[in-house]
Amino acid sequence: MGIDLHTVAESIANKVKNRVDEYIVKLGAENKLMVKYARGEPSVTQSWQTLRLSLYLAKAGRISVSSFSAERPDEILRRVLDSLELLKPSPFYAPLPEPSGENTEYVDETIKTIVEEGDATRQVEEIGFSEPGDVAGKIEFWYLKEVLLGSNGADLRHEATSFNGYIRVFKGESSGQWSWTSTFYNPLIARKAIERAGELAKQCAKLPKRRIEPGKYRVLLSPMVAGNLVEHIAMAASAGSMIFGTSFFQGRKPGEKVLSEKLTLLDKPRDNTLPGFRGFDDEGVATTNKAIIKEGVLETILHNTKTAKLMNAKTTGNAGWIMPAPFNLEVEPGDATLDELISELRNGIYITNNWYTRFQNHVEGVFSTVSRDAVIVYENREPKYCTERIRIADTMPRLFSSIELIEKEQWPIQWWEVEIPTRISHILIAEANISLPQ
Amino acid sequence: MSSVDESVLEKAINKMLSEGASYAEARYHEIRRTSILLINGAVMGVEQSVRSGIALRAIVSGGLGFASTTSTSTEAVEKAALRAVAAAKTSATGVKNPVRMSPARLGRAKYSVAEKEPLEDIAIGDKIASLLEEYKVLVLERNGFKVPNTTMIYTDSVEYKVLITSDGAYVESRVPRVAAMYNLAAVYGEKRANRFGELGASGGYERLKEFRLGEKIQDDINSLYISLVEAKSPPRGKLDVVLSPEIVGLMVHESAGHPSEADRVLGREAAQAGMSFRATYKEETIGSPTVTVVDDPTIPGSFGFYLYDDEGVAARERVLYDKGKLAELLHNRETAAIYGTESNGAARAMDYLSEPIVRMANTYMKPGDYSFNELIEDIKHGIYIKKYMEWNIDDIRWGQRYVGLEAYVIENGELGEPVTNVALEVTTKELYSSIDAVGKDLVFYAGLCGKGEPPQGVPVWMGGPHVRLRGVTIRWA
Known about the structure:
The complex is a heterodimer.
Chain A: H1 5-16, E1 22-38, E2 41-59, E3 62-68, H2 74-86, E4 104-106, H3 109-117, H4 121-127, E5 135-150, E6 155-171, E7 174-182, H5 187-206, E8 215-221, H6 223-236, H7 239-244, E9 265-267, E10 290-294, E11 297-298, H8 305-310, E12 329-331, H9 338-345, E13 348-351, E14 354-361, E15 366-371, E16 375-379, E17 382-387, E18 391-395, H10 396-399, E19 403-406, E20 411-415, E21 418-424, E22 427-435
Parallel strand pairs in A: 4-6, 8-13, 12-21
Antiparallel strand pairs in A: 1-2, 1-5, 2-3, 5-6, 6-7, 8-22, 9-10, 9-12, 10-11, 13-16, 14-15, 15-18, 16-17, 18-22, 19-22, 20-21
Chain B: H1 6-18, E1 23-39, E2 42-60, E3 63-69, H2 74-94, E4 108-112, H3 124-136, E5 141-142, E6 145-165, E7 170-188, E8 191-202, H4 206-211, H5 213-230, E9 237-243, H6 245-257, H7 262-266, E10 293-295, E11 318-322, E12 325-326, H8 333-339, E13 347-348, E14 357-358, E15 362-365, H9 372-376, E16 381-393, E17 399-411, E18 414-419, E19 422-427, H10 428-433, E20 435-438, E21 443-451, E22 456-464, E23 467-476
Parallel strand pairs in B: 4-7, 9-16, 15-22
Antiparallel strand pairs in B: 1-2, 1-6, 2-3, 5-6, 6-7, 7-8, 9-23, 10-11, 10-15, 11-12, 13-14, 16-17, 17-18, 17-19, 19-23, 20-23, 21-22
């Protein structure tokens, strides 16, 4: 990655600055290596070295956003600038804010070397990914260097690394899946996830399999499941979702109680142990750690300057030029151990993984999601049997208003169904509606 | 105009072979895209992008490696070739079943999709004007019912690729596409609902007019009105059900197309998009003899159109369920080699950052010979589900759920009052076995299908006729 990003970004800025009122140039160089496993062996190893340019332009209230990976940007720049002249002023437009962001750097040199050389053979061995036997999943190493230059005076840099992955362990017809995420390489983080996935697979392999009847159940959500669902809560708190009409917080205001008082959901861009860590948003505004939901109360609607103007609020440093979004999520831990949660589950279902969360009605938060991997049914506090592929079919507000307990241990999760790095615990829900084909 | 110095691709192939690769593949992949975002009839902004770069694959000692680079300089591409080989060697250290490429009908061809009105000839101002015209005709309010949020996203793109493989494939292709998505959020008193819609096709700007976007959106607004204002709760229990082409299209995509992807059957996507019931299903029959489901990339004008896949293999129709029996799987060259067969051309990559994996293109149920009236005429007490609002399916593509937005009671062979929140939750076998009559109509719907790691979204069509199901369980959602 010998290219001087700042020089390239400056040259782009110089090409556009006389033809627009405002601009932001975001230039990122990303190196990534991923080893993917299936059937207990590596199925493919992938290596990326990507240079990506994103550009925000505004002129007389007209807005254009563009991105290109091309090395020679002149042709597309000309097209973008010409198009800008043909647009109409956008009601979405707001002047760029004063840049308050800070440069951030958190680089693990081991990861940087792995992605530059495209070789993770030693680390893959050290992690012992395939030790449980029949496994599938991925191990990912990622390095990002980014500059952001703006007509508002923003001149910011960010450099970061990430080590994340997930594993599905099979034992006979049973399986368990878990994930991990971090900003530095630590094989122990991965090994803990591998062990947890293995334990779940083994536990279900030993138990009989049985169908359950649809109905209301006490459920224990694993961090994988809870992480998927709270991501939808966080995105519903984005002003963009409210403007697009896809938020179940539509019409709700900060200060209103919306969910259980046991739930505090934070956006933590300044947490340098999670890969969404950064000191500035896409408008150059300083990021801050903040509660989205505090003890069940809607505390923060996530804004950029444009959504803030439309909703008569202030930016929260969560730009996205179009859609405000959180960077890292954390659910504040409770004080119960996993054993205590299982004991309190009494008669209920431990759902360890899910996918395909789909909304029947975004604005009312009516959704269903399908379990996968181990689903353990407890009777009188004892694991009695495993079931499979059941659905939680409920509403987000109802489900997350019936939290009983939250585990004190937190798990750093990131995978296919939890895109935003999330630190979260097991969550015990007093009542969830469960459905499945009859 | 899109172009690439093909000698760079050849140098990459040679570099990978000289470093020990037994198979090498180089693909220049460029997608130029323009999107226009309208909220409540106002242009919020325009997004333009060019994603271009080179994707390389190598097999070394049975390990598969992939590398990509945005730079097309010889130096950068040769370095990427070394990374592809290093990646393949990383895979090879743990590989137990060496990756091989099956025999296949490899192409040496150039093709492009014609545009009556070339996308690049239409000024962005004209595209915006057309969208505003479509918006203007919408009736967003009546009898206390309102649609306060209307989001429309227009996108056109031109995908240009040049693919070369070490065993002789050469394919250059250019596919322009037009798509439109919208979300409508409606309110009536305390009740709220929303509806997503998606349209897409390959071709030039003329396709936008063919979408009749305004009419489609208005039709969905009417469905929301019926659902919020007029509809009652549906009857429950075992009922005869007629499904519309919209739901049949989604159904065959989810529970015929996905489980027929050979990489899922083999477990290559086990930790991501999941596996397939076809891995362990012992029976030959999956549905009634009236059911035939195919996937065909070669349908002119389709959203999932291609003539050669991203491994250079000639595309053709694949029969997935044949008169109720399980039939072909969708293969790329890797899965075909494991099955000892030829690839049937199902390898697709989203962009230069993506490896080609087994994908659907245009999946649909073959029409039968029933008119809509014939389908409902002997139903004494049933339901017609016209539009859905929620669906999902488990990770082996067996248990699935569809929730109707607009549906009607069928009484004594005639459509009756509207009902909503109709939930059909069935297994794949129950679903396809309960079909006893298939309509003679055929309608396609567009979508972006997600799979892979990193996730890849590729354009597809899914479609079918109206079908009649006998005695399936209906619940309230």
